[in-house]
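Consider the tokenized backbone below.
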């Protein structure tokens, strides 16, 4: 824990969706260690209770679903009521398609899978950004989106997931364009990470968790290991800290063990 008054995010307030597990939880833990107070929007009540237990009044949690506009309104309102301002909004909650191949989906499962995955991974980010923007304009704050190496490359997911993460790349770029110079908009693109990332109910995969299925993936990563959630958290500190990233917008920071240099 950073000594009081010496954190990189002292006095700042952030809001993180999906902050109860995995990459989101690592962001919350690191933001608190850097002196921030944090609001969280999370659908899992057990994970929400763990956040409250571990962080006390530095973290407030709203239980809700990122697919619902009213959940975002409630979490932004609660964050502002309790913490007084909002400096960084991190859209992060997501689900995975477990690399289901396009031809295996068939028409019905494309329709249902698209709705569940895009409403979480893309619409959820748009609704969150929309709810947070007035407060971010007031503070001169920033939006940070969790993307994925699947926003940059094929093969790390199926068509639904890869298309959703490419859509978030477009969202970062368009919002950075529209919101400059008032609100900075950037993304982090993690590669394989040991988390409980879940699958789609529409594909019968709601109970799968990614960390149980990453054996052997390290062989495909130049740096030779699968990351932990905390390996990415410092990039979210960088992007939230205006002293270190005030000239950055529309940027996407890969944190993927070197996929760009895998070689031919
Ligand atoms: P995770 O399941 O550990 O964490 C996601 C959190 O979001 C969970 O606490 C879950 O309850 C919550 N959540 C899911 N759907 C929600 C909804 N509809 N409403 C509210 N909360 C919801 O998984 P993670 O790997 O930490 O995923 C976080 C982000 O990181 C996702 O956007 C994912 O696509 C991305 N990502 C993950 C990996 C990886 O390998 N794990 C790699 C690249 C990108």
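A designed sequence for it:
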């Amino acid at each position: 824990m950073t000594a009081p008054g010496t954190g990189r995010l002292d006095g700042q307030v952030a809001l993180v969706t999906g902050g109860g597990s995995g990459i989101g939880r690592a962001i919350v833990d690191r933001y608190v260690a850097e002196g921030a107070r944090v609001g969280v929007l999370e659908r899992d009540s057990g994970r929400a209770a763990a956040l409250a237990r571990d962080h006390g009044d530095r973290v407030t949690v709203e239980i809700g679903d990122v697919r619902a506009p009213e959940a975002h309104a409630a979490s932004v309102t609660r964050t502002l009521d309790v913490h007084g301002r909002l400096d960084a909004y991190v859209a992060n909650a997501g689900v995975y398609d477990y690399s289901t191949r396009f031809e295996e989906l068939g028409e019905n499962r494309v329709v249902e899978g698209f709705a569940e995955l895009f409403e979480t991974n893309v619409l959820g980010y748009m609704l969150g950004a929309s709810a947070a923007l007035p407060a971010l304009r007031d503070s001169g704050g920033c939006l940070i989106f969790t993307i994925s190496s699947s926003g940059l490359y094929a093969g790390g997911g199926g068509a639904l997931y890869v298309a959703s993460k490419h859509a978030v790349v477009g969202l970062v770029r368009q919002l950075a364009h529209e919101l400059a110079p008032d609100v900075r908009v950037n993304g982090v693109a993690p590669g394989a990470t040991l988390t409980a990332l879940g699958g789609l109910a529409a594909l019968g995969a709601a109970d799968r968790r990614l960390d149980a299925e990453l054996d052997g993936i390290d062989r495909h990563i130049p740096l030779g290991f699968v990351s932990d959630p905390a390996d990415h958290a410092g990039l979210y500190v960088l992007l939230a800290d205006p002293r270190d990233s005030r000239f950055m917008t529309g940027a996407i920071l890969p944190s993927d063990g070197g996929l760009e240099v895998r070689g031919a």
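Strands lie at 13-17, 37-42, 59-63, 88-91, 142-146, 184-190, 252-255.
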